[in-house]
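User: Design a sequence. Structure:
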């Protein structure tokens, strides 16, 4: 799973999910964004996803334009997520906003700091090895979470 919920915050063990009509190729464990197209309200998130369009992580698979419901864990400010990285994880990336990779399923982690609207992930820690592609733990930044 590319994006894994580590903590929901508080005493809640199971994360809340909602059923949302989806379109495009949506895969479990990957982020989705608001698309509001005919046939669906959400679609796969990617490189151009912004803090105002990012919604949550899908739990189901969907493909094509349809009215099939996809279970999604919406992002909130209490959640911590473990994410796969496109590049080696480094302490120099902690606290620097990152954007989603174009290939989906990864954070395109780097050490360049910018507050661009497509920087949707704030790393707080490294987990696992720092060689090859690593993993970061942090929070997703959306206009709905207020981070």
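Assistant: Done.
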């Amino acid at each position: 799973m590319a994006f894994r919920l580590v903590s929901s915050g508080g005493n809640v063990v199971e994360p809340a999910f909602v059923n949302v009509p989806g379109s495009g190729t949506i895969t479990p464990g990957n982020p989705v964004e608001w698309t509001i197209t005919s046939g669906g309200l959400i679609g796969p998130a990617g490189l151009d996803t912004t803090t105002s369009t990012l919604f949550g992580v899908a739990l189901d698979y969907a493909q094509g334009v349809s009215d099939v419901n996809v279970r999604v864990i919406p992002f909130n400010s209490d959640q911590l997520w473990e994410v796969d990285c496109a590049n080696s994880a480094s302490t120099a990336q902690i606290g620097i906003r990152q954007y989603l990779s174009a290939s989906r399923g990864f954070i395109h982690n780097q050490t360049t700091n910018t507050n661009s609207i497509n920087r949707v992930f704030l790393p707080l820690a490294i987990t696992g090895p720092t060689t090859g592609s690593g993993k970061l733990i942090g929070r997703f930044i959306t206009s709905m979470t207020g981070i």
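The chain has a mean pLDDT of 85. The chain has two domains: 15-74, 80-140.
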